[in-house]
Amino acid sequence: MARGGAVRLALLFSLASVAYHLCREGLAFTPGRTAAAWGWNGQGRDPNVARNAVEDVATIQELDDAIARTAQGEPNVLIVGFSTTWCGPCKLMDPKVKELSEIFEAKATFLKVMGDKAAEGMQIMKREGVRTVPLYQIYKDGQKVGSVSGADAEALTSKIEQHTGMKATEPSNG
Predict the structure, then answer these.
(1) Three-class DSSP category at 34
(2) pLDDT digits (tens, 9 = 90+) for 9-58
(3) Residue 76's pLDDT is what?
(4) Which of 28, 90, 93, 118 is flagged as catalytic?
(5) Does residue 107 lie in a domain region?
(6) Would residue 24 count as lying in a domain?
(7) How many domains, in total, are found in the chain?
């Protein structure tokens, strides 16, 4: 009994250590919303459907559909943030990412994959090669064109500016 307790305790500390190091290096299950719930009607975004600044993605198909839409120019740029519920740096970045999503609303769409919460979150993260969180991947014309690893708001802003052709200080009126 005592040995089993020690093994469980050692395993717990080991898992906590891994979680700490992943989060420190810059590495979340609410059900995701379907494309229709986001306001996508097959012809682009339905302006009558309100959207959150940063939308959750729960399935590989939802992510693939969003990436494919960038090849059609809707949206111009897609930013996909990868996170987990326990990641401190991710939580610190959330307000900045929300702010960026509002600034660049006319040029970019922001999605979030919560690896330990979304239905297929871990599968998505594995497929996309996510080794640390937060990680932000940027897509344009159906292709990944950049990424920012860690809680680096300046680098993320710079990458978004680069790919949207818009400065964060400009009004986002199209």
Answers:
(1) coil
(2) 544 444 444 444 444 444 333 333 444 444 544 555 554 444 558 999 99
(3) 86
(4) 90
(5) yes
(6) no
(7) 1
